[in-house]
Amino acid sequence: MLTAPRSSLFLIVAIDGGAAAGKSTTARALSARFHFLHIDTGSHYRALTAELLRLGVAASDPAAVERALTGLALGSEVEGRRAAITVNGRLVPDAELRAPAVNAAVSHFAAIPAVRAALLAYQRDQARIGRENGFAGLVMEGRDIGTVIFPSADFRFFLHADPEERARRRAAEGQQDSIAERDRLDSSRKTAPLVCPSGATDIDSTFLSLDEVVERVSAPIAARLAAA
Ligand code: CDP
């Protein structure tokens, strides 16, 4: 029987978890180790939030949000091993994505079904961009990757850590961010809430070093690649 050629293997890795749970650092490490395209879906919600705030649209008015979304064209720019979102051709700078106003509003916008619907096909399409750009796979981090975006991903991980430890990590980054409040909103919303996907590998990073988390996540991927 014929087996698929090795070059056709394209692995999809989903990493979900609450704010400051270590998703980005882990995803970046996997991307470097295995040459995977890295997608931070939090930045997608942040970019839409920044743009909607600029347009003066409030999350308390979902009908206005839905109308404004029809005028926003989403694109992707691959820089190194990362694909960043563009909104109407504009790459939203990191300082804007992480501004206190965006931190405070993003979970409110992310709870609106029209916002999530606007990103669903866009996020799934990142696998095509990864393949076309010669990556060996895709590592996507967020809140609903293993449940909604790629429920059949090759690997699904859920990272969590004690709230105090996560608040400490975010403060060490010098950011003004109510992560407990965002987690509460993200976990309690009706559409695509933050939950550990059933069947995902659940990792508590409270007492683990970053290297230990990366090792736990990398080991099964390395084993799969070695067996391919
Ligand atoms: O970096 P941090 O973990 O604090 O947050 P983020 O990943 O940048 O995500 C910012 C916000 O976007 C989250 O608090 C969620 O409200 C929303 N989000 C979401 O709803 N679904 C995703 N897949 C990713 C982010």
Can you put this structure into words, describing what you see?
With 228 residues, this protein is an alpha/beta fold. The chain has one domain: Rossmann fold (3-Layer(aba) Sandwich). The chain is built from eleven helices and eight strands. The strands form two sheets. It has a five-stranded parallel beta sheet, with helices on both faces. A three-stranded antiparallel beta sheet has the order 3-4-5, with helices on one face. The longest helix has 18 residues. The radius of gyration is 17 Å and the shape is globular. The two termini are 15 Å apart. It binds cytidine-5'-diphosphate. Cytidine-5'-diphosphate binds next to helix 2, helix 5 and helix 10.
- Share of helix, binned: 40-55%
The tally of domains stands at: 1
What is the CATH third-level topology name? Rossmann fold
Q: How many strands appear in the DSSP assignment?
A: 8
CATH superfamily: P-loop containing nucleotide triphosphate hydrolases
Looking at the overall shape, the CATH architecture is 3-Layer(aba) Sandwich
Largest sheet: 5 strands, parallel
Shape estimate: globular
Number of helices in the DSSP assignment: 11
Q: Low-confidence parts lasting 5 or more residues at pLDDT below 50?
A: none
Small molecules bound: cytidine-5'-diphosphate
Strand content: 15-25%
* Average residue-wise pLDDT: 94
From N to C, what is the helix and strand string?
EHEHHEEEHHHHEHEHHEH
* Spatial order of the strands forming the largest sheet: 2-6-1-7-8
Computed CA radius of gyration, to the nearest angstrom: 17 Å
Distance between the termini: 15 Å
Question: Structural class per helix/strand content?
Answer: alpha/beta
Overall CATH class: Alpha Beta
